[in-house]
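2024-03-11 09:14:02 INFO worker-7 job=invfold-0412 stage=load source=structure_tokens
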């Protein structure tokens, strides 16, 4: 089915079961304490308007992106699709690839980071903790350094778990916080600087047709991404 269009939210794909969009930066995935316009509500309102639906519109949230992070996301338009996509997230059969710019350079050009993380709900901060800490959850990602210049590294990251703030905390834990991370790299970040983390690829099995779908999105041609504008073919 041809992509539709949302105000300021590019739609990559839509059918009766799912809608795939590019989340704008600094838009909450769902309503939070700020009560700023959130992506889930925006898409619901758009579906209601475009399809002339009376009453509430169903839209299932199956994964999240942090507020400052942009990139490709999938939402479920039916409860069946939501259930199957949620199962795929739980069994780690959805492939989630991110691109990030980090300060410094990891000791190894590629590898796997494994930590145990614990979120403090009062501060909304996540910490690396010992494995036996009550409430700790394992966090695993693979990374590859694509290039390094001006003291920064462009890295590709594949998530194997989906813990809150996972990429940000794990790279900070190895001494390479993300560029623009106000929480976990504040000592290297200017006030108001945008975090350099983008959801660049999402691959999954369609919840009803079982076809393998792959969607991608490129970060904006802004600092620090423009350091690699030619390599990433940024427009």
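2024-03-11 09:14:09 INFO worker-7 stage=emit residues=235
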């Amino acid at each position: 089915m041809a992509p539709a269009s949302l105000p300021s939210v590019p739609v990559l794909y839509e059918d009766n079961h799912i809608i795939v969009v590019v989340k704008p930066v600094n838009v909450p995935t769902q309503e939070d304490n700020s009560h700023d316009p959130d992506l889930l509500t925006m898409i619901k309102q758009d579906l209601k308007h475009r399809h002339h639906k009376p009453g509430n519109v169903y839209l299932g949230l199956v994964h999240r992106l942090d507020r400052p992070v942009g990139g490709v996301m999938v939402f479920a338009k039916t409860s069946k699709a939501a259930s199957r996509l949620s199962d795929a997230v739980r069994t780690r059969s959805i492939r989630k690839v991110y691109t990030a710019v980090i300060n410094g350079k990891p000791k190894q050009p590629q590898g796997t980071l494994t930590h145990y993380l614990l979120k403090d709900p009062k501060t909304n901060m996540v910490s690396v903790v010992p494995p036996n800490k009550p409430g700790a959850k394992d966090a695993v990602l693979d990374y590859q350094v694509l290039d390094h210049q001006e003291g920064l590294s462009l890295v590709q990251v594949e998530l194997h778990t989906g813990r809150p703030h996972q990429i940000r905390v794990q790279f900070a834990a190895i001494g390479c916080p993300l560029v623009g991370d106000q929480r976990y790299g504040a000592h290297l970040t200017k006030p108001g600087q945008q975090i350099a983390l983008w959801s660049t690829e999402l691959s999954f099995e369609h919840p009803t047709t079982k076809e393998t779908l792959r969607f991608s999105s490129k970060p904006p041609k802004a600092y620090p991404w423009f350091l690699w504008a030619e390599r990433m073919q940024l427009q």
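2024-03-11 09:14:09 INFO worker-7 stage=report msg="The domain at 5-229 is CATH 3.30.2350.10 (Pseudouridine synthase)."
2024-03-11 09:14:10 INFO worker-7 job finished
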